[in-house]
Every structure is written in C-alpha cells, then in structure tokens.
Amino acid sequence: MNNKKKAAILISSLAIIAVLVIGGTLAYFTDTDNAQNVFTLGKVTGEITENTEAGTVDGHDVKPGTPTEDGISYDKIVPGDWLSKEPVVSLTGTSEDAYVRVKLEVEENVPQGQEAKLTDEQKAALISEECLNFGADWTLGADGYIYYNNKLSLAGPQATEPVFTLVKIPETWGNRTANVNFSIKITADLVQYDNFKPGTNAAGKIDSWGDITIEKAAQ
C-alpha cells in the first residue's frame, strides 16, 4: 500500500482512563474561480468514553472505579483484584463512516527521587490478554494495535463494543509493587471507511492498516 494520507484523526485517553474528545475538519480545498470546482472534504471525528460498575464475573467480585475529570480512578487495589472498565470509541458530530483501532500503553507515575517499581514485563502483561478480556469484535495486530472489525456510521452502529470490560491485577505482584501508581493510556485512531482497504489475517479479521499516516484533526 502506498503511504497515502487518509482522512483520519487521533484521539487519546490518559490515566485509567481519561476521556478526550477530538474533532474538527481534516482539510478543505476550493477553487473560487468556478463554483462547480469547489470541493469540501469530509471528516472523521470521535471520542472515547467509558463506563465502570460493580458486579460479579465467573464468581469473582468486580470493583468499580470513581469517575474524575481525568478518567476513572481506582484506590487501594491489591493483587488479584478485578476492576471494571469499559472503554468505547464513538463517532461524533457529522463524521463520515470510519474504521477504528486503539493502542494501549502503561505509564508508571514515579515520584521525584524514587525508582520505578513496575518492570517492562509487568507493564506488558497489564495490556495483554493475561489481564484484559478483549471483546470478540477486536483483533490484536502484530504491530501492537487492536483493530475493530466493524464499520462505524452515524446511521448505526455509531459506537464500538467495549475494547475490554475488565482489568485484572496479577496475583503474582508482591511487596515491590506496594503503593505503585500507574496509568493505562488508550490512543484511538479513526480512518475513513470509504475507499480504504484494511489488511486481514487468515481468519478474515482486520489486523492491519498498512503504512497509513495518521494525523491529528485540525481544530
């Protein structure tokens, strides 16, 4: 695939997890010499939202978090806890139809003068199938992105299924992780559905967008 810039936006979610809405028009091009030669590009706009609630899954208690301006906060968690978190990506405004993918990263908040407590292996586990129950409509690609396999449209469905609904804190975490403070960062990309062909795996599931360039939408 040529490295073509498609109509796309990038939206990010910080903390466990902040909600950030990004919108705007990617580009316009016009020719004012002749009204018949005036063109306006469409746009893709979206947002990340999430839900959290108490419950029970497979006989295991699920703890809810506390919504804040920065996302959902969880206090006094211990190894073995299951935390409720349901991030969803939705189209907004007058967005064109779009494909969606997300990327997950763990960021430890280390106080000044102290050393990090989480190892790279522990961070990787937190955003893997070991600790997250990815939805059936999402596929993990070899590039580390998680791809949604259905089109989003204002005509419906306008929102994805949750990327996951649970965060499981490993029971193997010991005293070294006491008082650790970390964030799971979610970055969501949207790309136009029309005239774009994503890559698929042997099962026909979307697992790649090729070498597409993602740009943040203009405000």
TrEMBL record:
It holds the Pfam family Peptidase_M73. This is SipW-cognate class signal peptide. It comes from the Bacteria. NCBIfam families: cognate_SipW.
